[in-house]
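Hi support team,

I submitted a single chain yesterday and got back a structure, but I'm not sure I'm reading the token output correctly. Could someone confirm the output below corresponds to the sequence I sent? I've pasted both exactly as they appear in my results page.

Thanks,
R.
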Amino acid sequence: MMFPIAVFVFILISILPVIFILVIASEKAKHREVTISRLSGLYEDELCGGVWYSVRYASKARFVKIWKIFPWEDCGILGIKKDAITFYSNNNQKIVFPAGQLFVEWIGTKYWPNGVIAWFLIRYGYKDHYFTSDTGKWASGSDTTTKEIFEKIKEILSQMFLNDPGKGIP
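Hi R., thanks for writing in. Yes, this is the structure output for that exact sequence:
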């Protein structure tokens, strides 16, 4: 029995967006690996003495946006030291969060509008910055590694406030 042409066209149209997303994800993953290697070499002196994680970043505007293919807008390295947390962006942007002037909050997974990705928030001043761990090609499975980054930040902040009790806890 022959497939009607309409069924073939329907299957093809159904599969094309999936193939498109897989190709984009694969290209982004390759680009991300090169970026992480470049950034870790470029900021080696600044990252020395701290820990760093490969992360994805979203501003508040991107995070709350409903229609998007990828919920993040940039990737890079999140460097965590005792005195500051610094995001080194793929786009050569550098955001420094001084440890005594930031607030950190676990967001977790928000299925709508951000899919199966776990997030945490760093609020500095009046701006919200959202981060999730970079898990490579597949965005799912970020809960454990994102929680690890969040816990490391909380640990460093709590050590800072234990050493200087006059600052208070954020």
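A quick pointer for reading it: The mean pLDDT is 81. Let us know if anything else looks off.

Best,
Support desk
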